[in-house]
Amino acid sequence: MTVSVAWDAPDPLPGPLVVRTVEVSDPGPLAARLPRGPVAAWLRRGEGMVAWGRTARVRPGGGADRFDAATRSLAALADRAEVHDPLEVPGSGLVAFGSFTFDPADAGSVLEVPAAVLGRRGGRAWFTTIGAHPAAPPAPLVDAPRPPGPLRWSPGARTAEQWRGAVAAAVARIRSGGLDKVVMARDLLARADAPIDERALLDRLARRHPDCYTFAVDGLVGATPELLVRRSGRSVEALVLAGTSPRGAGPSEDRALAERLAASAKDAEEHRYAVESVRTALAPLCADLDIADRPRLLRLANVQHLATPVHGTLAADRTALSVAAALHPTAAVCGTPTPAALEAIRELEGMGRGRYAGPVGWVDQRGDGEWGIALRCAHIDGPTARLFAGCGIVADSDPAAELAEADNKFRVMADALTG
Ligand SMILES: C=C(O[C@H]1C=CC=C(C(=O)O)[C@@H]1O)C(=O)O
């Protein structure tokens, strides 16, 4: 396996990497500050970070150790960094944004160090420059992002009908034994007349989905509700999601749908597998681990989910990325048991997931960071967007209902693209 660190300056590395963080006055909505060019973002409820430019990029290739390979490259970079960071809050100083493939067999994972970062946490804002030359401080944008114009839509790897058939095949496989749950996903393609400006999507997503984590890393853009891990010192947190219902047209239908979700044995089963996969991964890493006994309801703009909060204390020092690596893939996106579910996904989905359903987020030089599961997202490549949505399948799943659920999940990105 190859690990490459590609610099936008000539090799070998251009002397020490200078990282400078300064406190700045409130910059207003972060997404509105992004200039044109490569961007990265992690935003929720007005806090988080936006980043631009590219000082270093690591492409660790495929393999189960792609997370370790990226971590080693980042550590080598941190070793030669000269960091001036008077704030020392999670995300200040040297920070990298990453997005990893769902399937260990797939190449395409990326960890990148931007040239400039604008962040806000707990009401304090900062600006960081990373690189041999200081980047320009954030200024009001002269080139406001343009939303995509008219789009042409087409099916991805499978038509709706074919995907329903794949879900039926997954149900049959579960009923025949050896597999308890598998998450089946599908993709959808949209094509614009001109390159899609990710900044317009970020702005819409962050405003419409304040309870989700709006993210962008190397063309993967979305708003995920699922927190794989937040690491702050020895403290870790996660929010496990699985089990979904639509939103109602009004409050009473909404409540009725929520009650049906809470009472559904099928959704409880889906959810239980996801929680147990997180417990199994975190228990060996934690000195204490607190997982709620019963899920609560998480209401989002287009769906409602069963959600279980998780809190723990790490037994030994580990970076946020290393904890994310230990957790991936949870049964919220793969299934139970993991190897049989991964095999079923490879055989039945008929597509490569790329970085959809993989960890996406950031890690700083202290090891703090936040990683979500890349859901409700699209891969933007020039004028094309490839949207993804998946659903947990258990023995009692109904393929038609799962198709409707996937359509609801597509809406997050479809609406961000269309207006
Ligand atoms: C796989 C996805 O959602 C997961 C997260 C929450 C609820 C899910 C479900 O109810 O099936 C999925 O496990 C997706 O949005 O593509």
From TrEMBL:
Keywords, comma-separated and alphabetical: Isomerase
Domain of life of the organism encoding this protein: Bacteria
Reactions listed under catalytic activity: chorismate = isochorismate
EC number, UniProt record: 5.4.4.2
InterPro entries registered for this protein in UniProt: ADC_synthase, Chorismate_C, IsoChor_synthase
Residue stretches making up the Chorismate-utilising enzyme C-terminal domain: 160-409
PANTHER family named in the record: ISOCHORISMATE SYNTHASE ENTC
Name the record gives this protein: isochorismate synthase
Organism encoding this protein: Allonocardiopsis opalescens
Biological classification of the source: Bacteria, Bacillati, Actinomycetota, Actinomycetes, Streptosporangiales
